[in-house]
Amino acid sequence: MHKSVSQVQNVHTTLSRARQTIMLVDDDPIFRSVISSYLKKLNYEVTEAENGLEALRLLRQHVPDLMICDLNMPIMSGIELVEEVSWQFPMLPMIVVSATEDMADVARVLRFGIKDFLTKPITQLDHFTSAITTSLEESQSNPSVVRDFSSQWFQLDHSGQVDEEKELYWHLNHLKNNVVTSRDLLHALQPERDTQQGGWKCSYHILQPSEMMPLVFDYAWLMDGRFAFYLVDSSDGGDNGVGTALLVRALFNDFLRTRKRCHSDLKDLADAVEKGISCTQCSEPINALFGIADMVENTISILPAGLKSNWLFDGNNQWIEKGIKLGEGCTKNFVTSHLPMKKDGELVLSELGVRSFKLTIKNLSY
Hints:
Rossmann fold; Phosphatase 2c, domain 1; 2 domains; six-stranded antiparallel beta sheet; 10 helices; disordered N terminus
């Protein structure tokens, strides 16, 4: 839930004593004037830039406490600016404000760890003020934390659980009430279809009707040469399907990011995700599947969580029953471990109706 107005005011009073600086980047002079006046009334110092290039020039002179930027600007777009700032100033919190309805653009800035995305025109100043104060507060309390997806729409504590008070329910409720927007966002967040590391190539293919809530797939290469992935059926989550899919993505990335130096177990991963689902109101049990391919041992392990699958290798089939769904105790399911993939293999999902999914893993040395 959003902080109450009194909570926001109390936080703002504490933070504003330091006269923090906000950089406002927008090509619309009227918008800049209105928002700048509002921020100054809240006792912030404000610097303005009319495009991304000017913002980068100002950043070389002084790094503000927060940047608020438009997405659609001439000379250098907001997406380009977000990407550049993410590389050059990874600790600088940013809020994107835009009138765009293109979910592909929204997805791109989310991948760069944007804390908040607000739509124009800004009609609810309490949401705007809350986004600013929350971003500044978190930046002060965790100055060394680099942006990542898990901190974008869900605030996770050190145990990987979701803090109810800091969840951005406003965004999730907006998505819940706008099916087309939700569907477009989940489609836009899908990763590249082909990825390669060392002598291995992984490719996935999804066929599904455009009008359905999608199957959501994501993956990550681990430092020890393994390939971790998951699949979630967002159409199974009812009204909270999109929120659950976003939460799974957040927890998946957070789990892997915080365990870079140790062995990531499938049941530990599923347990972390189930804890997140159990402590938030915007998610519910959902059909899913988790897997880790070990390119050193040439094996793959699958943990079903409501989705039935089939591993095809060297002319053989290994059926994997769907088991208990994610959020209802899927850690009780049997992990099918050490399935061979010396040359290649395909993970195919069945019982998806008119949809289909296939993950192909190939050893390019053969």
